Amino acid sequence: MTSTTPRPIPDGVPERIRHYIGGELVDSADGAVFDVLDPVTNDVYVQAAAGKKADIDRAVAAARKAFAEGPWPKLLPRERSRVLNRIADLVESRDKRLAALESFDSGLPISQALGQARRAAENFRFFADLIVAQADDTYKVPGRQVNYVNRKPIGVAGLITPWNTPFMLESWKLAPALATGNTVVLKPAEFTPLSASLWAEIFEEAGLPAGVFNLVNGFGEDAGDALVKHPDVPLISFTGESGTGSLIFGNAAPFLKGLSMELGGKSPAIVFADADLETAIDATIFGVFSLNGERCTAGSRILVERAIYDEFVERYAAQAKRVKVGDPSDPKTEVGALVHPEHYDKVMKYIEIGKTEGRLVAGGSRPDGFPTGNYVAPTVFADVKPDARIFQEEIFGPVVAITPFDSEEEALELANNTKYGLAAYVWTNDLKRAHNFAQSVEAGMVWLNSNNVRDLRTPFGGVKASGLGHEGGYRSIDFYTDQQAVHINLGEVHNPAFGKG
């Protein structure tokens, strides 16, 4: 549904979003563009260059030249660290502008977009520190041998990022890729190209050499596909949904590329009867409705022990109805507009399916007072069976399914009963149960009596259909570097002497 009243466009929006290749803003080779929509009105507010294979080829050539001939891979870690810290300083100094553009482009509430901008700065600061402190393995066999490890940047890293919290998730990949001396080609999501266009000016001001960072906008089937299949791109880091991840896996296989893929989720939040109920409700409300529900780690299935189930559902539904839906630019807004009409239609179709699979206790429609735009009222279904589509499939919106359980064994079976395995949240005051349940649940990350608060040193990634590999801390350093073992003889050479009779 499109508005007839356009919204004021924030300061800083370019007349046209272009690619950034070899240190220059450029149009697509064939001049193609695509429309970018304001999620509150669904009006076109800017056009972006639509990249294809020719544009990817040009960007990879620039990145490859910067890697082979430029100073960046050869700099000392401390020298690269200084540039990364300047990038962090610039992001922090522009956090309000970044948040305003991110909120306008994606529909995220401005207060949450501001937090994501600050976290992007912290990602760069974290890896600036980590590469200076990096220590690698050395082993000595006294009198015989010394063995040590060289870490070397791999080359051109292809980074493909999603439309939810785009600027922060771009920083999550850019920071370690650049910190370790690689050059990059970034392909941001086509729904939200605006904030990605700000990286060029930030990197230039920070002193990143030309060609080290390149950006090509466009659609996954064009620009993304060409990047995955390019023979001079040995690494692909992708965040997105599992079906696209499977396609990338297949397309990258002939080239034996390094892959890191954080994919979809249908994460359970398990609430036992001995949990602090008010805290658990607050956390599970935030866990699925923050970021408009468009988050991979959303606790979108809540499993509740039967003894407290009715009270939990009643209190949860009442609180969900009080979640403030509003214009993303309003600091009081808690749920804004979904990113795009295509995604809005997908979420609304799941809500209609949910009405046949569970008991609707909150939401279920467009909220009152919002006749246009991609607004969805926070929606809660209770009594959802484990074979329901809204239990099994990733909706990626402000929609949650609540299911009762009678025993710890049943809770574990329900928690593991999807193809996904990204995150899990466990609420209980039984310490033994908490640790044993965390060990048994099929999830790459588990939070015990905690919301989604992550230490950047820890691994981030999932199991099953939720991903391949891990990033974060030293895992990111491992992904973006080759580890070369060097062996030095210190004494008599211990060789079998072939051919001497």
Describe the 3D structure:
There is one protein chain. With 501 residues, the protein is α/β, with parallel strands linked by helices. It is built from 15 helices and 21 strands. Strands 15-16-17-14-13-18-19 form a 7-stranded mixed β-sheet, sandwiched between helices. Strands 10-9-8-11-12-20 form a 6-stranded mixed β-sheet, sandwiched between helices. Helix 2 runs antiparallel to helix 4 (110-133).
Keywords:
alpha/beta; 38% helix; 501 residues; seven-stranded mixed beta sheet
In short:
By secondary structure, the chain is an alpha/beta fold. It is built from 15 helices and 21 strands. The chain is globular and about 80 Å long.
Structural class: alpha/beta
Q: Approximately what portion of the residues adopt beta-strand conformation?
A: 15-25%
Strand order of the largest sheet: 15-16-17-14-13-18-19
Distance between the termini: 87 Å
| Shape estimate | globular
Arithmetic mean pLDDT: 96
Question: Helicity level, as a percent range?
Answer: 25-40%
Computed CA radius of gyration, to the nearest angstrom: 24 Å
Low-confidence regions: none
Largest sheet: 7 strands, mixed
How many strands appear in the DSSP assignment? Answer: 21
Number of helices: 15
